[in-house]
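step=predict obj=Protein-tyrosine-phosphatase n=157
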Amino acid sequence: MAVALEEPAKIPKSILFICGMNAIRSPMAEALARSMLPPGTYIASAGVRPGERDPFVDVVMEEIDLSLGKRLPQTLDELEDDFFDLIITLAPEAHHAALELTRSNAVEVVYWPTLDPTVVAGTREQILSAYREVRNHLAVLIEQRLLRKNGVKAETA
């Protein structure tokens, strides 16, 4: 008896990352995903509420040679496109907002619990360490959940 092999799922063609204010977690995830996923994958990020750019994000992204460029935080209402194959939420309020937003759409919404590094107090180095932890956590999730399970080999630096 022949056994049918499952084909690996394809990487979604469009991915939206959502967090609270689109200032830390979701823009980090967007930049990381752009650097890791195949060209042609549409990747965006947004927040539930308006936010302001966080300079610690720029510092920890520059450490791995990535940049947000001139990108500013945006809310879900400000998105140019509103159809995505996959929405990844990084905070509880973002997950609730995404479920509400997609109530009548057939879109996959996935929750990746991710620490808010702004809750960490201490020295500049301790704060940066928390931001690095978030950056590295997101990179691992993107690699494990979007690349490996989809049969795409991640490049190593």
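step=describe
The chain has four helices and four strands.
step=end
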